[in-house]
Amino acid sequence: MKQFFEFVKKECFHIFRDRRTLLILFGMPVVLIVLFGFAITNEIRHARIAVLDQSQDPLSHGLVRKITASTYFDLAENLRSEKDIMPAFKKGDIRMVIVIPGGFQRNFIRERKAAVQLLTDASDPNTATTLINYANAILMQYQQEETGLKHLPLTIQPEVRMVYNPTLKSVFLFVPGVMTLILMLVCAMMTSITITREKELGTMEILLVSPLRPLMIIAGKVVPYILLSFVIANIILALGAGIFGMPLKGSLALLLLACGLFCLTALSLGILISSVTNSQQTAMMMSMMGLLLPTILLSGFVFPIESMPLPLRVLSNIIPAKWFIIILKDIMLKGSGLRQIALPMGVLSGMTLFFLVVSLRKFNIRLS
Questions:
Q1: Burial of 320 (0-12, 13-18, 19+ CB in 10 A)
Q2: Which candidate, 195, 257, 258, 255, places its Cα nearest to that of 224?
Q3: Among 347, 341, 194, which residue's Cα sits nearest to residue 280?
Q4: Residues 27-64: pLDDT tens digits?
Q5: Is the CB of residue 228 less than 8 Å from the CB of residue 25?
Q6: How confident is the model at residue 156, as a pLDDT?
């Protein structure tokens, strides 16, 4: 074992001596977590809107003040006629036009109903849908404030409650996803490149004739990356909690256990890639195409799996990142315990065992 620890010590020195590797290992998590947390978000703030108020009464003025008082909308222009609507959209910075027809207050008081027209720029469908939802929520709130305690007969009054993420912060989605992406890149890609580099330089043959067994050599190669992955995972958790207020409702020990299991899964994938490639370039391409893209596209990190076609939903089940993101959300947001995450933990354990057996088998075949 002394020889093994000396080998691990040598690998650690090798990693810390390479400044580019250190920059990737510790710079990438900080850049990605800040980028995804601040820049890449589904929330829309300060969307510029125009208003065509044909009623000009106290109720319509109150409605405009209510909408523009929120952080979602900024009043950019007051239109004079319907002919100004399309030119306002063509300027490019107006996302929505609110048209309040004449007699708005009179209709609301006498007929107990009044119409408001919402026109959005649907060249970006997601933004248009989000703005309509924001505006509808504000209109409903304004209506309740104006009607007070007057209730209509046979009225369905929904009571909406958002559990686990009441403020609908998109960062609560991105932090688990970024953590998964970074751990996958660090563990799988760096491991595959490191082992392939030894084969490319011809030093792997020298290591194999050393007193250490091949299994111990592979273990010695991946142990430093397991330790680094734990450090990086803690850095991401600290950044998520300190900067974005990411909660941790479950057990920290269980979360670190899940991180360790996912690191092993990613490392086994990296060993598998290194066992079938002979150059760093090939290993990097396989890691990028085979791990990075599926992690982003098919894990539920960016796009909801439920909205995908059936073949892609089935394919997503063999993506380790999908199960790890489920575990992270369950522990961090829902406070789930080991019983609730037993299925994804079992799937990751099975994947790890399968990848290790296949990669070691291929490695032994190559040695023979």
A1: buried
A2: 195
A3: 194
A4: 777 777 777 666 666 677 788 899 999 989 988 899 89
A5: yes
A6: 53
User: What confidence score (pLDDT) does residue 368 get?
Assistant: 47
pLDDT at 219 over 80: no
Over the chain, what HEC string results? CHHHHHHHHHHHHHHHHCHHHHHHHHHHHHHHHHHHHHHCCCCCCCEEEEEEECCCCHHHHHHHHHHHHCCCEEEEEECCCHHHHHHHHHCCCCCEEEEECCCHHHHHHHCCCCCCEEEECCCCHHHHHHHHHHHHHHHHHHHHHHHCCCCCCCCCCCCCCCCCCCCCCCHHHHHHHHHHHHHHHHHHHHHHHHHHHHHHHCHHHHHHCCCCCHHHHHHHHHHHHHHHHHHHHHHHHHHHHHHHCCCCCCCHHHHHHHHHHHHHHHHHHHHHHHHHCCCHHHHHHHHHHHHHHHHHHCCCCCCCHHHCCHHHHHHHHHCHHHHHHHHHHHHHHHCCCCCCCHHHHHHHHHHHHHHHHHHHHHHHHHHC
Least confident of 203-207, 301-305, 317-321: 203-207
Say what percent of the chain tops pLDDT 70: 88
With contact defined as beta carbons under 8 Å apart, do 239 and 30 qualify? yes
The Cα-based distances of 78 to 54, 74, 301, 363 in angstroms read: 11, 12, 40, 71
The token pair at 152 is 């209509």
Q: Write down the mean pLDDT value for the chain.
A: 80
| Least confident window among 27-36, 154-163, 241-250 | 154-163
What pLDDT is stored for residue 161 in this prediction? Answer: 65
